[in-house]
Amino acid sequence: MPKWIDGEGPQNDIIISSRIRLARNLDEFPFPVALTTEKSKEVIKRVSDTILAGNTILKDDFKLTQMNEISNGDKQVLIEKHLISPSLVETSNKSGVMINSDESVSIMINEEDHIRIQCLFPGFQLKETWDLANKIDDIIEEEVKYAFDENVGYLTSCPTNVGTGIRASVMIHLPALTMIDYMNRILQAVNQIGFTVRGLYGEGSESEGNMFQISNQVTLGRTEQEIVQTLIEVTKQITNKENDARATLVANNKMKLEDRICRSYGILTNARIMNSKEALKLISDVRLGIDLGIIKDIDVKAINVLMVDIQSGILQKISERNLNTNERDIERANLIRERLKS
Questions:
Q1: Residue 30: inside a domain
Q2: CA dist., res. 59 & res. 174, Å (int)
Q3: Sequential DSSP letters for 292-313
Q4: Which residue, of 240, 271, 295, is where some domain finishes?
């Protein structure tokens, strides 16, 4: 299981994970959209050799996976673990990924850009995550020449990544702000300062289970450190708002809140059929109950793992068989009951 899911992290009652992603391109090759299959293989070899064949401190910790050599089910598992993007799967004949042993780092090759360095840590560790991503970036840049312009910065396929090429984000659990209908104000506020709020799986995804990803939109005109520091400050403000909302819910109607949380726990521990959307909603209530001390004797890390394991690809991997929609809903309910009761 990836480090960001079952590892210890600061403020992980609200902040699930911290992520840094850097977009880079090799100067001597066309952008991935214009790469031939043969040229894409050259890019994969160049990038992987930089990590695996050199005298770097990384070579013994990474493994290269060619996307056209693994099953669709394994690809889906990597997406659900947040180790690769759906876009990488769309170009499986030209792409690959390098993942380290604890799955805290993944280097996507030939996604939208030649290189996407992603570091993902548990809890609120944006500075630490940035430090690691920056070190890996420096190691790669010692061996290859990046597409770079002195006036603009790093050149990328999409103009929204030009400049620093950095996308910093936190995954954050905001059930109380959702309950008091405050999320629209949060959305408006972060948009005004160049940040955006997305769902559990990033751009285009829904905010299921009251899980949100907050990330920068602007990559040009600010340094990487400035972007990371601003996100830290924004995250602190949102975390304070969530804590205030939780305190208000407890003070104003504790019994109603406890009833909702305990009902959700009751459904999860007894239901026989459950789709992923309902499961995430109920798990969100239980996670809040654990954080508030209403539900005891359940480790929040176990809830984090469960939140990932109920996704369709991983669920089928655990079951060791292909499942249709109805079978997945039955197996999901079984898994949730077993995990919570144990």
A1: yes
A2: 39
A3: TTSS-S--HHHHHHHHHHTSHH
A4: 240
In a domain, 342, yes or no: no
**Domain assignment of residue 191, given as a range:** 3-240
Tell me the one-letter amino acid at 53: A
Q: 3-class SS at 113?
A: coil
CA 141 to mean position of chain CA atoms: 25
| Number of domains observed in the structure of the chain | 2
What is the phi/psi pair of residue 213, to 5°? Answer: -110, 125
pLDDT one-digit tens code per residue, 37-67: 999 999 999 999 998 876 667 788 999 999 9
- pLDDT per position as a tens digit, 199-253: 765 554 456 899 999 999 989 999 999 999 999 999 999 999 999 999 999 999 9
Mean pLDDT taken over the chain: 93
Convert the pLDDT of each residue in 157-174 to its tens digit. 999 999 999 999 999 999
What one-letter code names the amino acid at 247?
A
Helix, strand, or coil here: 321? coil
Q: Is residue 177 part of a domain?
A: yes
Q: Residue 213 to residues 5, 72, 97, 225: CA-CA distances in angstroms?
A: 15, 26, 23, 19
Main-chain dihedrals φ then ψ at residue 64, nearest 5 degrees: -90, 130
Instruction: Please report, as a single letter, which amino acid is at residue 6.
Output: D
- Looking at the structure, do residues 273 and 309 belong to the same domain, yes or no? yes
User: Could you tell me if 33 and 179 lie in one domain?
Assistant: yes
Same domain, 134 and 230: yes
Q: Say what the pLDDT of residue 37 is.
A: 94
